[in-house]
Amino acid sequence: MSALTPPPDRFSNHNTVPIIAVIGMLELALKRADHGELDRPAIEVANGSANELLDLIGDILDIARIESGRLALNPERANLRQLAESVVRVFDGLSRQKDLDLVLELDSRINTDVLIDPLRFKQILSNLVSNA
């Protein structure tokens, strides 16, 4: 597979779902805004879907970087607990919409700084949570 060819299992009609949700929720919010109503849930869904689409595009670009040998890690000092908590915050609204409990349970010893690529760590953890 070439670096410019999206992997078939990652690039399909399923990938249009986030943008369809963004458009639909924004149209709904606009209609309600015409009547002086603020539709926060619709805006939150649109925001979440836009972020999903952005993540998908990022994943496709990462695959291209891996195939071309240009993916670089950028390790820096970061707190694992804070990184994990930030990922949980991103998924909190989505889990509530689906009536799911998203709970982060970490050993108290995890509250320490380590040398890690925070972007890649959060990306991996986000992929695990979104696939759960």
Automatic annotation (TrEMBL):
One of its GO terms (molecular function) is histidine phosphotransfer kinase activity. GO terms for cellular component: plasma membrane. Residues 10-132 form the Histidine kinase domain. Keywords: Kinase, Transferase. Its EC number is 2.7.13.3. It comes from the Bacteria. It catalyses: ATP + protein L-histidine = ADP + protein N-phospho-L-histidine. SUPFAM superfamilies: ATPase domain of HSP90 chaperone/DNA topoisomerase II/histidine kinase, Homodimeric domain of signal transducing histidine kinase. This is histidine kinase. It comes from Pseudomonas cannabina. The lineage of its organism: Bacteria, Pseudomonadati, Pseudomonadota, Gammaproteobacteria, Pseudomonadales.
